[in-house]
Amino acid sequence: MIIKINDMSDIPIYQQIRNQIIAGISDGKLEPGEQLPTVRGLATEIGINSMTVSKAYQLLKQEGYVYSDRRNGVCVRRDFEQKKQLSKSSSDGLKCIIAEAKVGGMTKEDFLEICEKMFEEGQS
Amino acid sequence: MIIKINDMSDIPIYQQIRNQIIAGISDGKLEPGEQLPTVRGLATEIGINSMTVSKAYQLLKQEGYVYSDRRNGVCVRRDFEQKKQLSKSSSDGLKCIIAEAKVGGMTKEDFLEICEKMFEEGQS
DNA sequence: CTCTTTGTATTATTCATTATAATACAAATA
DNA sequence: TATTTGTATTATAATGAATAATACAAAGAG
Predict the structure, then answer these.
(1) Full pLDDT tens readout for chain B, 124 residues
(2) To the nearest whole angstrom, how far is the Cα of A50 from the nearest Cα of chain B?
(3) Are B111 and A95 within 8 A, CB to CB?
(4) pLDDT under 50 in chain A at which residues?
(5) Domains of chain B, with CATH numbers?
(6) How many angstroms separate the CA atoms of A52 and A56, rounded?
(7) Whole-angstrom Cα distance, residue A63 to residue A103?
(8) Which of B70, B97, B100 is nearest to A95 (CA)?
(9) Which burial class, exposed, middle or buried, applies to B15 when counting CB atoms under 10 A from its CB (0-12, 13-18, 19+)?
(10) pTM of the model
(11) Measuring CA to CA, which of A15, A74, A103, B61 is 20 to 30 A from B123?
């Protein structure tokens, strides 16, 4: 599991880490029960502060994606909440993206095709 | 066209305004050529600083959604760029949302159905 | 027990972004 | 001429993000 930070992005580092961990779980690069890189290890690897990594992990923990032992570090949960619905922020974000797509001239079919491809891309 | 600001949101006010204007264009509440509320008018109406509204309008202008005369104010463009593809940030955001949906147990069909409904909701 | 590694907590500091405030200016128009 | 438009400027406050330097508790290895 390789984390790549984009310094030019306006997305905070801790958010980028969080997003990539979720993507990793989604496409199977990270398996249930698997341990994430250690806070200090990952911080050193990508050249950032430990607390920034910790912040990302705490966010993931709070959202229910991972859990943490003292000794075993932070691991991917085996029992995700299968809520089968989007979070409020995801839903709001999706509405925004769809509005932009429509104004940009995309048809419903155009958009759904893109979604379909994206969904299949990282086949878990 | 009513703009509603959520003070509790972590999304900056100028971004919220921008998003709602685009949503308004998308669903036809704002028509091509129509004038947006004046900078000072909207600022007073929703109780914020004029420059915050101006920042939102400048962003929309830069993105090609509106144009501005000195006297006629800021108006919705009549000739949008019909690029028929998602912006980089939209594409990245969508990937993120899809990853979260997948981890949450949604199938491709579940997700596409939600997208379809959202696309049809504000029928322009 | 001692030492190391784990996540976490604390405190302080720096930096960028956001938002406000108070003006000012050019252009258009009534 | 006076008003309204967007915009520019400068200063300031508030917040969030990231770093830095430690420290602590828990668990395991030796």
Answers:
(1) 899 999 999 999 999 999 999 999 999 999 999 999 999 999 999 999 999 999 999 999 999 999 998 778 999 999 887 888 999 999 999 999 999 999 999 999 999 999 999 999 876 5
(2) 24
(3) no
(4) none
(5) 13-76 (1.10.10.10), 88-121 (no CATH)
(6) 6
(7) 33
(8) B97
(9) middle
(10) 0.92
(11) B61
Q: Does B40 touch chain A (CB under 8 A)?
A: no
What tokens were used for A105?
A: 């001239």
Q: Which residue of B has its CA nearest to A94?
A: B94
Structure tokens at A48: 């950032």
Q: Which of B37, B55, B34 is nearest to B45 (CA)?
A: B37
Looking at the complex, does the CB of residue B102 fall below 8 Å from at least one CB of chain A? yes
Cβ atoms within 10 A of the Cβ of B12, count? 12
